[in-house]
Design goal:
The complex is a heterodimer. Chain A has ten helices and no strands. The longest helix of chain A is centred in the middle third of the chain and has 40 residues. An eight-stranded mixed beta sheet of chain B has the order 7-1-4-3-2-6-5-8, with no helix packed on it. In chain B, helix 2 packs parallel to helix 4. The two termini of chain B are 52 Å apart. The chains are: A mainly alpha, B alpha/beta.
Chain lengths: 260, 227
């Protein structure tokens, strides 16, 4: 009993400490991010690894998510004689919710885990220490470019996801099922608002990008320098990112929700 | 350096793809028109019933989109709905313009339709429209139709056949008449004697479940139309 209380207390203290370290680390990234912009080449390299290399999985998933939305949406809407609205359903669900969320989940598992493993391994093989010995700040040279690359890539990936998804919905709705193409696009246009729907989605994906990449670099930088430690950190990155994305999504959706 | 050139190329392509995607969504999937914050003037209208009108619903004249509803409130003095909406400043309207709440299609969203009047003075920002017509509530309409149909049927019967004088269908048989316009009059001859119209109820019983079945999705689809 006493043991349990003690463990609970230790856990609380550890969590608070970790949160403090995470915040301090975030500030340090911001402080040392000068180099990632003055030597933008560093960041571009990371955008290549995080963004461009995630394109295939994001594109393919987007296509399939859009096609599934098209099929399911048609199946439901046709009962109400509103099959023409399948475009609205696909576009709104993708732009507002699924695009940012699913793209961020994919990004966390595709790029976030890789970054954690990379930085963790750099730490385990004492490359980060070596940098410090050479008076190179590892946060400026290693962490910040990866961080900004993630922040930049995430909204781009989410937009591409939504677009490919809408195309997938078009393929199913118009090409396969035969919903009228004009009605498909015009109803979509009438219901999707650029500022309220598309920009909200981009804001969401930006927030998700910051959260995911922050967790990824933090877990990597903080991982115990052992093989086990790196593998644990990689797992934690994916799990924590997924939870953070879904929780943040709820908060953001609630904030952006307008009744009436 | 050579290797970096390839990286740069792919990153550039990635950014271009994202920009193209954004432009596609902005122009093809969304109505980017809301971005262009064109000059507008806002006008108020008091309606006795706005139905399912929502903020951001379109304002049209002759079917052309000219503005959007910006605010819906309730006036506790007159117990009327006050709808504020904007009209593009490019299109001045006469002062005696009337506003109606219309529905696009049977299940479509509701919008405000403007019918210009003949006044020489134009509407100014903040003006209130004098002539308005609220939303048509389908349920009321059906009720009225039934009532008039019933009254008509009752008149016919009392004039025509001696036995069927009291065949006016009770409220229970009502929906049946709504389903098939002729049901009330068809039920009339059959249900001759009884004023409660059990006979027409019998004929209509099969039809009753179907009209609510059709009406319910209509209501939910309307709610769904604009999220």
């Amino acid at each position: 009993m006493i043991d349990g209380v003690a463990r609970l207390g230790a856990w609380v203290l550890r969590t608070i400490e970790r949160l403090g370290f995470a915040s301090r680390f975030f500030v340090a990234i911001l402080r040392f991010s000068g180099a990632s912009f003055s030597r933008f080449r560093l960041t571009i390299r990371e955008i290549y690894f995080e963004g461009v290399m995630s394109l295939v999985i994001v594109g393919v998933s987007g296509l399939f998510v859009g096609m599934v939305l098209g099929l399911q949406g048609y199946d439901t809407l046709v009962r109400y004689g509103a099959a023409d609205s399948v475009g609205v359903l696909v576009a709104l669900s993708l732009v507002r919710e699924l695009g940012p969320v699913v793209a961020a989940l994919l990004f966390a598992s595709r790029a976030g885990s890789a970054i954690t493993a990379e930085i963790g391994l750099m730490k385990a093989t004492e490359q980060l220490v070596a940098m410090e010995m050479m008076a190179v700040e590892p946060i400026a040279r290693v962490v910040a470019p990866r961080f900004w690359a993630g922040v930049i890539s995430m909204p781009l990936l989410s937009i591409i996801f939504s677009t490919v998804g809408i195309f997938g919905g078009y393929l199913i709705g118009v090409v396969m099922i035969g919903v009228d193409s004009g009605a498909f696009w015009s109803q979509m246009q009438a219901s999707v608002d650029f500022r309220d729907d598309v920009l909200d989605g981009i804001v969401k994906s930006f927030v998700f990008g910051v959260a995911v990449i922050w967790i990824a670099v933090l877990e990597g930088y903080d991982s115990p320098p052992t093989a086990e430690g790196v593998s644990g950190a990689t797992t934690r990155t994916v799990v924590t990112s997924a939870l953070a994305i879904l929780a943040l999504d709820f908060v953001l959706t609630a904030l952006m929700f307008r009744g009436t | 350096m050579n290797r970096n050139r390839a990286v740069d190329f792919w990153v550039g392509l990635f950014v271009l793809a994202a920009i193209a995607a954004l432009i596609f969504i902005a122009l093809r999937a969304a109505n980017a028109s809301s971005l262009s914050s064109a000059a507008v003037y806002s006008v108020k209208g008091h309606f006795n019933n706005i139905g399912a009108l929502k903020v951001r619903a379109p304002v049209r004249a002759a079917g052309v989109l000219l503005g959007r509803v910006t605010e819906i409130s309730f006036d506790p003095q007159t117990f009327e709905a006050v709808v504020t909406f904007t009209i593009n400043a490019k299109y001045p309207f006469p002062k005696d313009t009337s506003a109606q709440i219309l529905t696009s299609g049977l299940l479509g969203e509701q919008y405000i339709g403007l019918t210009p009047g003949g006044d020489t003075a134009d509407l100014k920002d903040g003006d209130t429209l004098e002539i308005t017509q609220g939303a048509v509530i389908l349920e009321n309409l059906i009720g009225q139709f039934l009532y008039s149909k019933a009254a008509e049927g009752g008149m016919d019967k009392s004039g025509g056949s001696p036995g069927g004088g009291s065949s006016a269908p009770g409220p229970g048989a009502g929906p049946a008449g709504g389903a098939a316009g002729g049901a009330a009059s068809a039920g009339g001859p059959a249900g001759g004697a009884s004023p409660a119209a059990p006979a027409s109820g019998g004929g209509g019983a099969a039809a009753i479940p179907s009209p609510p079945g059709m009406a319910a999705p209509a209501g939910s689809a309307k709610g769904e139309g604009k999220r």
